[in-house]
Amino acid sequence: MSVVVQNIERADQSVIDRLAVCGVATVHEAQGRKGLLASYMRPIYTGARLAASAITISAPPGDNWMLHVAIEQIRPGDILLLAPTSPCEDGYFGDLLATSASARGCRGLVIDAGVRDVADLTAMRFPVWSRAVFAQGTVKETLGSVNVPVVCAGAYVRPGDVIVADDDGVCVVLREEAEAVAKKAEARMAAEDDKRKRLAAGELGLDIYDMRGRLAEKGLKYI
Amino acid sequence: MSVVVQNIERADQSVIDRLAVCGVATVHEAQGRKGLLASYMRPIYTGARLAASAITISAPPGDNWMLHVAIEQIRPGDILLLAPTSPCEDGYFGDLLATSASARGCRGLVIDAGVRDVADLTAMRFPVWSRAVFAQGTVKETLGSVNVPVVCAGAYVRPGDVIVADDDGVCVVLREEAEAVAKKAEARMAAEDDKRKRLAAGELGLDIYDMRGRLAEKGLKYI
Amino acid sequence: MSVVVQNIERADQSVIDRLAVCGVATVHEAQGRKGLLASYMRPIYTGARLAASAITISAPPGDNWMLHVAIEQIRPGDILLLAPTSPCEDGYFGDLLATSASARGCRGLVIDAGVRDVADLTAMRFPVWSRAVFAQGTVKETLGSVNVPVVCAGAYVRPGDVIVADDDGVCVVLREEAEAVAKKAEARMAAEDDKRKRLAAGELGLDIYDMRGRLAEKGLKYI
Amino acid sequence: MSVVVQNIERADQSVIDRLAVCGVATVHEAQGRKGLLASYMRPIYTGARLAASAITISAPPGDNWMLHVAIEQIRPGDILLLAPTSPCEDGYFGDLLATSASARGCRGLVIDAGVRDVADLTAMRFPVWSRAVFAQGTVKETLGSVNVPVVCAGAYVRPGDVIVADDDGVCVVLREEAEAVAKKAEARMAAEDDKRKRLAAGELGLDIYDMRGRLAEKGLKYI
Amino acid sequence: MSVVVQNIERADQSVIDRLAVCGVATVHEAQGRKGLLASYMRPIYTGARLAASAITISAPPGDNWMLHVAIEQIRPGDILLLAPTSPCEDGYFGDLLATSASARGCRGLVIDAGVRDVADLTAMRFPVWSRAVFAQGTVKETLGSVNVPVVCAGAYVRPGDVIVADDDGVCVVLREEAEAVAKKAEARMAAEDDKRKRLAAGELGLDIYDMRGRLAEKGLKYI
Amino acid sequence: MSVVVQNIERADQSVIDRLAVCGVATVHEAQGRKGLLASYMRPIYTGARLAASAITISAPPGDNWMLHVAIEQIRPGDILLLAPTSPCEDGYFGDLLATSASARGCRGLVIDAGVRDVADLTAMRFPVWSRAVFAQGTVKETLGSVNVPVVCAGAYVRPGDVIVADDDGVCVVLREEAEAVAKKAEARMAAEDDKRKRLAAGELGLDIYDMRGRLAEKGLKYI
After folding, report:
1. What are E118-160's pLDDT values in tens digits?
2. How far apart are the C-alpha atoms of E213 and F131, rounded to whole Å?
3. Chain F closest-CA separation from residue E5 CA (Å)
């Protein structure tokens, strides 16, 4: 059955914005090393960093009809996230859809498939994380669903979950855990500041983290 | 048999230049969604966009001898296109060959294999779309052919066919269809301009393309 | 057995610096087309070019403990080179480790696995050549070894061997051959300068390298 | 947090057995073309066909400790299903673990990683669907979880969901949908029997499914 | 434009049968080392060896409608060959289609995508060479074409060209070259018989092919 | 420089035969989890298990000349092991070379490239572990070396090192460690026999290996 779920829960916007500041690697660690999408999901240009609520899309291979449907569901601060129902790298999305999504307040796109018009998207600063850049066109014949749970690039994403994305890739945070994760991530950043200074001054991680004893105990030999 | 075909037909230069303006995604759509090379063919630097007549090269794996032969066949406005006879990612081409090709008026290289000296090629603004960046050297021992039809990255290319390439990848246009495709591509661009304005103003594709009825008919449920 | 070898031999620093000037493609050719790491080893940003002595690390999949151990072994002018004991793309290394390594005079990292915090590493101009960019965190539970011979991305590397890396990828030079290779690479560069001028002036490689006779003899037909 | 969930719900055994009879392709179609694991999940020998309740395992890369924990949770008719927390093809499982699992009534293993001792497993007729065959050993240092939801080879699997597997691959059925899916799958098989006879007699799908009109309407031309 | 070409030329059946006897490796060599499909095209069971005339199919990703259309075009001794218009591994073909195709005299299937029901197909001895085994279902919404030239797994195939397939993979022979290739292939086989006997008796290829002088001349050193 | 090293050291034949009995997984564990070739190295048929001394071959891509040279160096009980100098999947080896190698007492082939005539090789019971099955022919134009150290599928192999291969893949044992590894592997097998009996009787690994305390200490929660 193909459905569009119109009212989804989202995390608090201020929490989402705090997650954006922390970035993917820190958020991933803060929530117990879970939620990463596969490493093949790469940004089309470097330097974008954001967090946003996911509008999820389950779409057939080579059919981008549901993107038009999904765009109507966007609220400012959302991000589109598309998972094909079987592996596909076709170019589901280009500059016209980006123009439309931007007009609705969309912050970007995460797609386990292809994207095209990347020169235009880069000029517009519309960030995309994708499996491929591919001009291959798609059709509009078969239904999918919008705002249902999907598996995208190996991660389980529900509508309204928080997507954090930067040059390191993409991470999903459960919307109900967003605040707790933001707190832990911020604490982690604060702790790292101190360590960064000590490491920059030449102290060794071996000493800062007190590793020498345990290494010897495990049997490490210096020769 | 190894041959060099010296007189090939090319499309009209003014038509080729019009195709360059349209770009890969638009040209691909305009000619009925055909002609794309595989998505693994990526540019060594972003921002290049061109169209040119193909000088095709069929070369053995790890042997770049035929590139020297092909360069003599270049006329200003041509592009080299190399397909190895079995999968190979060796670095067939570097800055010396680019210097030579440029001196003959060559616009770039499409190679279903590797390329090297990419920092130099980027500095020279000699555009390359390749399967790999790899410094692996090649030999000059075994013949291939120049200006014969080849399959390059999944696309069938004949000498003199028009190659369109940009950040989205590479597309081939049959030389005898070049003018008709250019017209359709330009018409498509004009039509997109209008749609882009309406989408930017917040109109939805669902309405512009009148999709709601057909979606309902196919069974899409809003919940 | 897990070991840290503390005193390793290195090539002469002036020789290492000469190899950096030559770059990967030239050094690879000069030493007889050997020593390249696989083409999937890509830089996290373009434009870095260096040569350095390898501090080698053999580490379990998903465990970056040995990086802390290895950093203590760095002398100014070294580079870290990590090979996992089975295929892994986890993010073993990020900005804190880069800060620590930099404080010890480290010139960069070559890792047949993943790296994270690439925006920070780019801002720091800490160069990394890796198989993947991936935020996936690692543990510190299982020993590996430092400064033992490893196979990294298909190349055999011993501690103290010279790593040359640039936008074309990564090459290893045996430390005892470094001087001889530098000489040959420099000779090659000098010879290329002359050829580059002639090619830029429009002379053909077919003539400069006197290939026409041998091509005919092998049976190449012009039609 | 690492947990072992000890009491999980399972589908009715008789329903599970009916799903085994239907096989992967039919079950996948019957439940609306969802639930397939990626095509890289291949059986270690041909001819096995089964359905079973999933004991799910989330395990670190290169660490098979949780398999020992999971085996205690097996009830007769279950299958082990392991998803690593980052991509890994190490050989987590071999003949000793298979002996232990068999003694508990385990029907097989689905693992998005590697398996070893495949000659022994084949001789034992212990079926395994895996991403790789690889002898690489693992450690027992880091915790994971047992009987928590996982994403395995692109499919979301909860403990107690029904796994159907045969030479075509692996499919997951939600335990609460198992009975409805079995019914639809059986109906599908019955309908296929009739069609198979007509097709074997030389009738065409074009006629049986009444496709000619719609093909013409879409514009198909016979030339 | 979507078309079905109904009258295609085929090679002589007796020639086709002679090519089947020679097998893929010999035919590929006999025709000058061309025509091989990519190595990822593997048989679903070992031991099949055939030659047949290609009924070619160009189909959209995830849409198997054109297979029904193509089956009507089969004459006894033909083989179906499907190339998707963008990369796809969905299961376009299963036991019902095989039943229908067999009833028309079809010898097998070559598909640069997925196949399912492989246990049934194996029991039927209906040979398939495919990119993947995958149960993923397809739709019947978008037209493609039948009996037009396609690029399949890297090889250019025209309708009526001869497909040779065995455990080594798949090779295409131009229908107009089929007889000449068969002769060369048979001559090659005859010559190999003699060599096989001499090699089995312990003579070395170095001597039979008189390689020692040329090896020395090229600089090979025995140490 | 291209060389053929004619006198290489080998491990004792009785030790080699003992390693064959142990198999890949056990030998790999016994020598400290090192020496495995990549998991993509697969046997062309199941059921072969052997150990043999390596005759190593470094060959250019697409050039099998050195195989003829290497066959002369075979002594009964050896195995050929070929590593191309850049990635290649061409079919370097087929039934004629197998006939010749067999006549010299060769036990099989390990090749990080392609092999062809696999139906014949299977009928001959000539075992091959390869990266690909591919009929693509090769040339005899460029020298390589025989009996020099190579990196093959990620493992460093010296001439005379012991290759162990079975359905799990391929492992290399340093010839000077062969006896010690055989002893450890045999001890491991003996120890496994006891464990296998206890596991078959229903005892849990958790108890046999006394894991419960350490799991609790690490924080595993049963819920």
Report:
1. 999 999 999 999 999 999 999 999 999 999 999 999 999 999 9
2. 32
3. 31
Q: Is the minimum CB–CB distance between F42 and chain D shorter than 8 Å?
A: yes
B4 forms beta bridges with: B146, C222
DSSP letter, residue D175: G
Task: Give dist(CA A74, CA A68) in Å, integer.
Answer: 11
Look at D195 and E135 and tell me if their CB atoms are within 8 Å.
Answer: no
Amino acid at A18: R
pTM exceeds 0.90: yes
Do C and A touch, 3+ Cβ pairs within 8 Å? The answer is yes
Neighbours of A192 (CB within 10 A): 17
- In the DSSP assignment, the letter for residue C36 is B
| Distance from C-alpha of F174 to C-alpha of A188, rounded to nearest angstrom | 46
Q: How far apart are CA D145 and CA D83, in angstroms?
A: 10
Extract the tokens encoding D127: 């079926």
Tell me if there are at least 3 CB pairs under 8 Å linking chains F and C: yes
**Contact with chain B for residue C32, Cβ under 8 A:** no
Instruction: Give strand ranges (E) for E49-207.
Output: 50-59, 78-84, 109-115, 128-133, 145-146, 150-152, 155-157, 162-166, 169-173
| Chain D / chain F CB contacts < 8 angstroms | 105
- Residues of chain B with Cβ-Cβ distance to E151 below 8 Å are 151, 154-156
Which chain E residues are closer than 8 Å to B157 by Cβ? Answer: none
What 3-state DSSP class applies to B177? helix
Size of interface B-E (CB pairs under 8 A): 23
Q: In terms of CA atoms, which chain D residue is nearest residue C89?
A: D87
Chain B residue numbers with beta carbons less than 8 Å from the beta carbon of F61 are 61-62, 88, 90
Interface predicted TM-score (ipTM) of this complex, two decimals: 0.96
> What are the average pLDDT values for consecutive 10-residue runs of chain C, which has 223 residues?
95 98 98 97 98 98 98 98 98 98 98 98 98 98 97 98 98 98 97 95 96 97 96
Record: contact F1-E219, CB cut-off 8 A: yes
β-strand partners of B221: A3
CB C105 within 8 A of CB C77: yes
Residues of E within 8 A of B34 (CB-CB) are 85
Contact F88, F137 (CB under 8 A): no
HSE-up of E170 (CA within 13 Å, CB side)? 34
Whole-angstrom Cα distance, residue D81 to residue F64? 43
**Other C-beta atoms lying within 10 Å of the C-beta of residue B221:** 13
Are A93 and A124 in contact by the 8 Å Cβ rule? The answer is no
Segment (H or E) for B221: strand B221-222
CB B143 within 8 A of CB C219: yes
Measured distance CA(D4)–CA(D69) in Å, rounded: 8
- Cα A102 from chain centre: 18
Strand partners of residue E164: E51, E171
Q: Do chains A and F touch (3 or more CB pairs under 8 A)?
A: no
C35 touching chain B per CB within 8 A:
no
DSSP-assigned letters across all residues of chain A: --EE--------HHHHHHHHHH-HHHHHHHTTS--BPPTT-EESSTT--EEEEEEEEEE-TTB-HHHHHHHTT--TTEEEEEEESS----B---HHHHHHHHHTT---EEEEEEE--HHHHHHHT--EEEEEE-----B--S--EESS-EEETTEEE-TTPEEEEETTEEEEE-GGGHHHHHHHHHHHHHHHHHHHHHHHTT--HHHHTT-HHHHHHHT-EE-
Tell me the one-letter amino acid at E135.
A
Instruction: Please indicate whether, in this complex, the C-beta atoms of C200 and B102 are within 8 angstroms of each other.
Output: yes
User: pLDDT digits over A60-79, tens only?
Assistant: 999 999 999 999 999 999 99
CA of F179, closest CA in chain D: separation in Å? 21
Residue with tokens 């010999």: E26
* Helix or strand holding residue D84 (H, E): strand D78-84
